[in-house]
Amino acid sequence: MAKLKVGDDAPDFEKPWTGEGDFKLSDQRGRWVVLAFYPGDETPTCTRQMCEYRDSSEKLDGLDAEIIGISPQGIESHESFIANHRLNMPLVADKGLEVAEAYGIKLASVLRRAIFIVDPKGKIAHRDVKTLGLSFTDSDSIAAALTEARSAA
Asked: Which residues are paired to 33 by β-bridges?
């Protein structure tokens, strides 16, 4: 798929997650959603990323946005990752990388680390795709991007 741009419709998807039932993006209409794509549970950079979000939960909770982690591992791996690091965000299982492909971040058999902010109407309000998987968008940058997206809406 072509690279998504700000203002494009966010591709809808329905996938298993660590919450109740399946996660369906279109069920979140009316809310701001932050999709945090990461390559793998229990890898060094991904663990730092998710723990940084956990440690900044007070700041992120104040954003009035649902933050969802997405990676190719299954639910059992996600549940273990959450338990091992006391994570406080739900994780979506994109085992076949269909969601990563729809968002234009699938690279061979892996995904690129990325943040997409989806506005209440289901449009892409912000995108940040990393070229290398060694860095991630921190919570301060997510907060700033969400504040900017809200002011532009």
From this structure: 66, 118
- For the segment(s) 32-152, the CATH number from 3.40.50.620, 3.40.630.30, 3.30.420.40, 3.40.30.10 is 3.40.30.10
Residues with active-site annotation: 46
Supply the DSSP string of 77-104, one letter for each residue.
HHHHHHHHHT--S-EEE-TT-HHHHHTT
d(CA 143, CA 153): 15
Phi, psi dihedrals of residue 143, rounded to the nearest 5°:
-60, -45
Q: What is the pTM of this model?
A: 0.95
Per-residue pLDDT reduced to its tens digit, 77-90: 999 999 999 999 99
pLDDT in tens, 92-115: 999 999 999 999 999 888 899 999
